[in-house]
Amino acid sequence: xxxxxxxxxxxxxxxxxxxxxxxxxxxxxxxxxxxxxxxxxxxxxxxxxxxxxxxxxxxxxxxxxxxxxxxxxxxxxxxxxxxxxxxxxxxxxxxxxxxxxxxxxxxxxxxxxxxxxxxxxxxxxxxxxxxxxxxxxxxxxxxxxxxxxxxxxxxxxxxxxxxxxxxxxxxxxxxxxxxxxxxxxxxxxxxxxxxxxxxxxxxxxxxxxxxxxxxxxxxxxxxxxxxxxxxxxxxxxxxxxxxxxxx
Length: 247
Description:
Helix content is 68%, strand content 7%. It is mainly alpha-helical. The chain has two domains: 3-100 and 214-246, no CATH class; 121-212, no CATH class. A hairpin with a 2-residue loop joins strand 1 and strand 2. It starts with a strand and ends with a helix. The mean pLDDT is 95.
């Protein structure tokens, strides 16, 4: 039975036959580093055990011997890692849902007119119109899923949502008040909050959260890879391994 343990600049590949479990380097730090370390230690021991079995046992006996190796190392590690990874996934999902929430509905008639006006525009006009929405305007689009119905390019939708999240954070925390516009020659008596400066200040926090969410996604893919690897090693189906490990 073919096995592999291959470090790369992006992480380490663990393989049995055609099944791959990839441990990205990004998962070795941050909130989920510990459960990932548990999984990777078990993967390393499992690969070594399977390689040893392949050298010692007849081909027809390897899968059964691998079942013992997998049970001793990978099954318990999966269960140990799965729980904290689920906790982190829930925390990220809840934070993401909160960040994307629209603001309070204060003028339903205005929201309806605004959405309808965008719907009547051609694509270039619509893209230009949504470039710098206020929080109230982006909330109007988010509230009933209209942002998805406007047939905007994915990049534009992502930009609108990023701005919505940043402005929503400023609205909830009131931190925009910490940034005042500075008088200039063109506007020597400028007063009020500097929205652009406030958004720039919180953008690193959004970037950090998006990186955290990406780590959760990668962790989910790692768990899938571990199950596939165990199935390949033991001759069981993926569904059978999953059912046994999550029972």
